[in-house]
Amino acid sequence: MIESNIIEPSIEVEKWTNVQVDSQILSTFMECPRKYDYVFNRHFVPITGVSKSIQKGQVAHIGIHNYWKARLEGKDYQESSVIGIDAAKKEIVNFNNLTPDDSLDVLHVLINFFKYQTTQSWIPVFTEQHFRILAYEDPSLKLRVFITGRIDLGLRNPQIKLIPVDVKSEAERWFYSVMRAQFKMYTIACKTYLLGVQRFGFQKTVEEKDKFKLEILSFDPDILEEFKTETLPYYIKRMLIAKEDGFYPMNNASCIHGHFACQFSDKYNQGGICGISRELREQKITRYFTIGEPWNPEDF
What is the mean pLDDT of residues 44-59? Predict the structure, then answer.
């Protein structure tokens, strides 16, 4: 979301350009400005709806959130587990792409995940915490950049006062990098150099200590400073230029990554969207996509 000329009269009389971004917006623009335009400006979503794997992850997040919320309220492990499962059961009927077997699979993995938590010593500090902070300011350009988002979980133990945690559901084991913009934003928001990635694995053959592992990433302070003072403003300025010009160029290098592909690439929809002539592009968009709700990070 870009907000221009937001003024704080009690502080200043000059007009500033205030830009607010979350990790989804920033990462998508960094990946491909054309995809950013399609998703966040034009709000295109596939007619077929959200994929089954994403929906399974969303249900898992509901259960995990309600579990930790109950723990924060002082409820014990057993009662919190029941609350988490009941919340997932209540919401799972709203996910139309999930079969009965898919639903049972999510609930089964949730039960095992909650059992695994009894072996852990982490104490919850918050769950689904929203933030909005000023990350960058350039008086010469009258430009401010705010980063915003919602952190899944905050935990602590006797050695660590606070570690922000992002819950990642996965059907196969992923590598999570400190280079990820989302993780940098979370550590900056919490003023820490550590971040936890809570794995929630749907794998059948992986041991629970691996598929439910809380992986801790450590960040170099200078890397975070570089992100705030160089990387972030660079891409924000490119975003403002694209908005001013009304032109969002393709980054074809990001279309296909192994067996993963952008939803607008030629892997999908009989030749895709970006890989065909401009004359036909809008016709195919109308055929395979619909207009969804504007992006709101608080909904996810």
Answer: 89
